[in-house]
Amino acid sequence: MKLASLKAGRDGRLVVVSADLAWCADAGHIAPTLQAALDDWQRVEGDLRNLATDLEHEVIPRDRFHERDAASPLPRAYQWADGSAYVNHVALVRQARGAEMPESFWHDPLMYQGGSDGFLGPRDPIPLADESWGCDFEAEVVVITGDVPLGATREQALAAIRLVGLTNDVSLRNLIPGELAKGFGFFQAKPASAFSPVFVTPDALGDWWQDGKLHRKLLVDLNGEPFGRAEAGEDMTFDFGTLIAHAAKTRSLSAGTIIGSGTVSNRGGDGGPGQPIASGGVGYSCIAEVRTVETIRNGAPTTPFMKAGDTVRIWAEDDRHHPIFGVIEQTVAAS
Amino acid sequence: MKLASLKAGRDGRLVVVSADLAWCADAGHIAPTLQAALDDWQRVEGDLRNLATDLEHEVIPRDRFHERDAASPLPRAYQWADGSAYVNHVALVRQARGAEMPESFWHDPLMYQGGSDGFLGPRDPIPLADESWGCDFEAEVVVITGDVPLGATREQALAAIRLVGLTNDVSLRNLIPGELAKGFGFFQAKPASAFSPVFVTPDALGDWWQDGKLHRKLLVDLNGEPFGRAEAGEDMTFDFGTLIAHAAKTRSLSAGTIIGSGTVSNRGGDGGPGQPIASGGVGYSCIAEVRTVETIRNGAPTTPFMKAGDTVRIWAEDDRHHPIFGVIEQTVAAS
């Protein structure tokens, strides 16, 4: 089953979307918003699935689904917690600045509490007041959970995953060192994120969803050029079950919690930093990583951060090259 | 005007509360929940204020208001961002562990993104799975904002304050060093917070609300003994307008954002650490601070963190010693 929220009010209007993303059907008679559906999942899931089946069979009124009309599936959420499960990415960033990465990072997940009071739509511009802040994208896989009890096991956590999607976790790189030095984590360095127009239940992903990981390539284009083609199922040190259980260690998580994988990142064939796509590698899922690799290789970064007018595209494809979750496509706009 | 949410469903049921906290009137015909009221404040504020006036005049149906029936006014919120505005508290903590506090802390607010997907009720037990985590309370002042535009000035931020209240920001002290060392801020160290049963519009606070600060004593009792009597209006380096503007520097804030002051803390009469109440001082608003002072004075802390059965009470009073926001009263329970 695929779900989306058409832009309307603060929380959007819930629709069921056809598998090919061409059509949608209003789900307002079942639940007005995705959050309302998640709040009451046991009661509404069956009705939503029946609606999805009817939509595929073309036996109910349907509308064309236009991704540009979609908000992020949860236009605002009660929780957005982002892990850093591709430890390779963290190791590279540390290596570039000559800092040792603690060995514990390989078995104790990194996670930060993100702002969730308002997300950008998947095709919305990224408002940027100051280019010197160093605007970057981060292409990630995310899941939305149901209620997760305090102290949940990995297995309980996996069973609580309701939907899978993608995010562009916008980051202001040049604000990060100052904030991290203060010791309280990210705040100003993490403005509003955007999510893929469509989120998908794990069962509808078939073999692409296994062991709490999405086994598909994450495609990233920057200004129309291929920038990243990393395999999301590879080099993910912590699967989503482990990330959710980490988040639930000292408190329960409410339905509608979004958990992120952190920037998807693959090692190079030699186990070291990966190569750009132009050099035959799988590229990168954020600018910071290519700058890190440039620093390691050449002593200084050369790829600039995003400026007004730059466009990033983030998506994943089925075997016929059709987007699974729709496409995040955002252009930076001076604000 | 005073507002509360009676326990019901995930978001509570909005009521208007009389100034003396004795009575309440259902506000469901105006807005079903506090979040719904904040989402549509321009439209509903007048109706809510009329209802509050009618309640004071006893011209409408009313019910006894029992604080034990109240949830936190926002039982879950889209954002909870906690500052550390009483820099004296931060300076003491650093001093106790022999770490220099950067001078910038006096003009650049510290703030962390807190979990907001589910809060404890003001009389709910604090679930604690492991006493070795070092369970502490933090008594703070908080505000709830309306929509705040990206890049808001302090004045715009002050004008966006809708309600004022108190919180117990529960902290697991012994999990903090490990999390801060990882560099991503608090996560497991900050389980669910609880808020005062009643929140109050700034105008209803009269002279007690000035310059974006609450000018009342914050009273804290631990196991029935006076523990803290700090003046919330004193030693607050950053007022709420400054804290909100800090939060809105790189992104807008949505209606229903809760901003916290951080632990209220007063300097001693000599400018150094304050004295316990038993020694004639104003005491402390969290256990960590008294442990810090004990460490500075005696080389080691002696006051233990909270254990199952320990009870903390947090409130503020009017001139007749009646609680303004009701009382947070929580007992630690093994979970």
TrEMBL record, chains A, B:
Tell me the superkingdom of the source.
Answer: Bacteria
Name of this chain's protein: 2-keto-4-pentenoate hydratase
GO molecular function per UniProt: catalytic activity
Q: Mind telling me which SUPFAM superfamilies this protein's record contains?
A: FAH (SSF56529)
Read off the lineage from the record.
Answer: Bacteria, Pseudomonadati, Pseudomonadota, Alphaproteobacteria, Sphingomonadales
The Fumarylacetoacetase-like C-terminal domain is annotated at 80-332
Species this protein is from? Sphingomonas turrisvirgatae
InterPro entries on file: FAA_hydro_N (IPR041072), Fumarylacetoacetase-like_C (IPR011234), Fumarylacetoacetase_C_sf (IPR036663)
Give all residue intervals belonging to the Fumarylacetoacetase N-terminal domain.
1-76
